[in-house]
Protein 1
Amino acid sequence: MLKEVYDMPKLIGFAIALIGSLLIPAVIALDQTKLVIAASDDSPSYTAAGELKMPRQYREWIFLSSGLDMNYNSVAAAPGHHTFENVFVNPDSYRSFLRSGKWPDKTIFILELRAAASAASINKNGQTQAEQVVAHEVHVKDARLDGGWAFFEGNDSGIGKPIKRPADCYQCHESHAAVDTTFVQFYPTLLPVARDKGTLSAAYLKEEATTHAAK
Ligand code: HEC
């Protein structure tokens, strides 16, 4: 009996050490889960002033397409100045689109405008993309926003300034874009999905029919 009493502190010490050694890895594991959740959390968030916090990891998102010198009013690009438009969308929304042909709430697109470079390194012909990013434009679907979708103009401090309605951006996207105000007709992996799922906009289908009839 006496012996047992003497051994008690040792036993308690041992028990604490045992619980500790089990607990520490569990806490670390919990922290790592948190980190993973934070890293893949690509839903839109805003400052108190309603500006978008620009998603920094968009280059790890799904790449949809690159347009070169696209313009919508037949004005040619200034000679020697070319621009690529790279379009990215957050991965969860992309996967959802593949299943349904629709964009879920909290979809974010980034349009990255990047200067073109010619004769860089061993390249003698054609254009490659330069390091210099000219601008970032963002299109966000969020039920909390006026009209359900909004545009933002990125700036160097990581903030997207909201573009208020009415603006050309909304007008053109709403009247010509193939799916839910987004230009799916220029995203080659998505156009067949929208066609299959029957989610192409009436305006786009009408425009297509007129263009084909005119040819
Ligand atoms: C006259 C038509 C037109 C106007 C005006 C216009 N866009 Fe677009 N936008 C397009 C087209 C076409 C695409 C497809 C781009 C590509 O393939 O490079 C596009 C794509 C985008 C995308 C990629 C996501 C999507 O919706 O498909 C963003 C972001 C975007 N535009 C932002 C803007 C912003 C911001 C403005 C206003 C400052 C604007 N656009 C004005 C035609 C327009």
Protein 2
Amino acid sequence: MPILDAVEMASSEEHVMAVLNSIPRYVELFHISFPDDDEPVTFKNTGIAIGSFERTLLTYSPFDSFIKGDTKALGKDELKGLEIFINSGCIACHVRETLGGQTFARFITPHEQSGEAEPDPGRFNFTGLEDDRHFFKVPSLLNVTETFPYFHDGSEWSLANAVREVGLSQLGIELTGEEVEYLVCFMHALSGEASPFARELPVLPPSGPGTPRPVFD
Ligand code: HEC
């Protein structure tokens, strides 16, 4: 959990509980959210609450409806793109309902290949294993139309070019202009809106008199 992780918030369970219990509005909100618990301000419930909040950040795309069984959720061109996505082998790496995020693959961007920048060692920096040199996480393609620039060095701003490039470097195929267009069309069906609730700036309750102050060491 990021709260406890040494390289993230580096806090302790006791500290988190002390802070939450010292802020009257949080205690009230825990009672409202977990009405069956006598003592609702627990670390476990904190995790449940954070999980519920994070799920509001998920987007829902036409592709999500499609894999849930609504075969009409994708239009003709999007279906054609999906077919190319499957048949040309993109699904070897971009798998499951997130279309990626589970595995690593080797990739050197055209920008790095051109010699303008040193190729990033990627996963090698973390594992020290020679076999991991230039390996990167296969990214999820959900909302990919919104997340340019692409690749680990952010060197590609066009989705069409990114698709053409991975076709060449990951699959050794030269996609035609038409295939690239259909693939990009399919990728638009992977984008969805976040709920308006998730975009609201949360108004945080004020600290109480006993709220621990920050310590500097
Ligand atoms: C061998 C595994 C593999 C295959 C096959 C593969 N990809 Fe990828 N793809 C990757 C990796 C790894 C990256 C991330 C590279 C990086 O971070 O620099 C990537 C990145 C991408 C990106 C850029 C996403 C971003 O956020 O930067 C797109 C778009 C993409 N792939 C689409 C496709 C399409 C379309 C196909 C089929 C034509 C395909 N990929 C085939 C491994 C693969």
